[in-house]
Structures are given as C-alpha cells and as structure tokens.
Amino acid sequence: MDKGAVARHFSRAAASYDQVAELQRQVADALLAEYQQSTGTILDLGCGTGYLSGQLQAGFAVAGQQTSRVVALDLAPGMLAQARQQHPQPGIHWLQGDAEALPLAEGCCSAVLSSLAVQWCSDPQQLFRECWRVLKPGGQLLLSTLGPATLHELRQAWAESDNAAHVNRFWSLASWQRASGSGWQGQWLQRNWTLYYPRAWALMKELKLLGASHVEGERSVQGLGGRQRLQQVEQGYRQFVTEQGLPATYEVFLAVLRKPE
C-alpha cells in the first residue's frame, strides 16, 4: 500500500468527507457501543475528521473525567486540519503519525480505538505490535475494518467492463486474526452494512468524496473509451437492483480485544 498516495487522497477529501460519511459514523457508533469507559489517555487511531474523538471527549465531559484526554492521530494532514476546525473543544490532542510507528511512549494508553482506518496499513502485524506496546496492561483495543466482501457488487460490475483493479480487495477475518497474534483476550465480530444508490456513478462519486477511491494498481478511466466502460459498469450493476435502489454492501469486522493484566 502506497501510504503517501493514501494520505494525499484523504487530505484532498477532508472538506467533503463528512457530507457522505454516514456509514463511517454508523460503524464508529457500533465500535463505541463495545467500549467500556476508561480514564487516562485514549488513542483514536486514524481519526479522520474527528467524529470518534469528539464522541469520546463528550463522554469524558459527561462523566466529569476532566483529567482524561483523547490523542487523535491520522496519517493525512488535511484530515487533521479539518478535524481541528470541527472539534475545537479542549481535551483532544491532534497528532500526525503512522499507525505502524506510533509516536507514543510504551504503556501510555488505557484504550486504543480505530474505526475503518487500519485497512490502509501496509503491515497489520506491526500495527498490532504497536497497539500492544502503547497499551497499559488491561487496556482495551477496539477496531473496525473492512472485509473482502465489501463492495462486491461494484467489483462484479467492473469485471464485466475490463480486468483492471477498480475496487480494493481487503483481508479476510482469518487473516486479521492471524495478524493480531495470540496474546489478546476478547473476540472478533462480523457485521454487514448495506447502502443504496440510484446509480453506480453516485456510489463511485461518494467513494471519491470520502477519499476511499484509491486502489493499488488502478488504471485511469478517461476519454471516450472510459465513458463507454462507465456505461458498461452502470449496465452491469443493474443485475443487483432492488426496490430500494442499487445496493453497496460493506463487510465489517469488529475487534473487541484487551491486553491481559
């Protein structure tokens, strides 16, 4: 995974991200539902525009935990700039950094949360090693990521047009479990979300606005031939149509883990 390209895509999408991030908010809420309130430093890993960080800090305020804080880390400087603007409240420390080389001290966090970010990591094993390192004994690790069935309808529609990679392929649950290692306590959950669109181009436009349209090895689709292929994609997607519109399925894995005491 080209991390520089990923960071640039998400930085460019920062201003438009929240307009189309309903799925991201729903998945973040599902992750928060598994979180057991804790004090100290909470790391929001891959914070994006700061929705999860804002929810965590609001929880601190309600609970009166004035000494607790959120460290909100993201690889994309554009996302951090947008997040700072949208969440100016005290108690959130914004930090640019790489999930696989966290600029944090050993054992400094009581919890690490990450929602729909770690699928962009190059080395998931190193990601889990870093999370283990910065967590205190007994600390929580809660993360969500995408599975291989994500956007399978769009992938199949593109396959009827050409053989290029237009949709990212994500790791299986078994692969994530192997990468996490054997030391954690807890479980992995699998859930599906389905969104509906009037046309395939509306889904593809949304992915671009989210910054999630970066695909490793993707070839540009431009000019007359590109328009013809996009029309083929629209036609190929019609096989999935329902009364609600064209479905876009997201397979989501939730890790609810804890570092042993």
Automatic annotation (TrEMBL):
Please give the pathway this protein is involved in.
Answer: Cofactor biosynthesis; biotin biosynthesis
**Where is each Methyltransferase type domain found?**
43-142
Record's keyword annotation contains Isomerase: no
Q: Where are the transmembrane segments?
A: none
Q: Which SUPFAM superfamilies match?
A: S-adenosyl-L-methionine-dependent methyltransferases
Q: Where is the signal peptide?
A: none
Q: Which GO terms describe its molecular function?
A: malonyl-CoA methyltransferase activity
- Which InterPro entries does the UniProt record give? BioC, Malonyl-ACP_OMT, Methyltransf_11, SAM-dependent_MTases_sf
- Source organism, top-level taxon: Bacteria
Question: In its UniProt record, which GO terms are filed under biological process?
Answer: methylation
Enzyme nomenclature, EC number:
2.1.1.197
Catalysed conversion reaction? malonyl-[ACP] + S-adenosyl-L-methionine = malonyl-[ACP] methyl ester + S-adenosyl-L-homocysteine
* Gene3D superfamilies to which the protein is assigned, alphabetical: Vaccinia Virus protein VP39
Q: Which UniProt keywords apply?
A: Biotin biosynthesis, Methyltransferase, S-adenosyl-L-methionine, Transferase
UniProt-listed PANTHER family: ARGININE-HYDROXYLASE NDUFAF5, MITOCHONDRIAL
Functional note: Converts the free carboxyl group of a malonyl-thioester to its methyl ester by transfer of a methyl group from S-adenosyl-L-methionine (SAM). It allows to synthesize pimeloyl-ACP via the fatty acid synthetic pathway.
Protein family per UniProt:
Belongs to the methyltransferase superfamily.
- The name this protein carries in UniProt is Malonyl-[acyl-carrier protein] O-methyltransferase
Write the gene name.
bioC
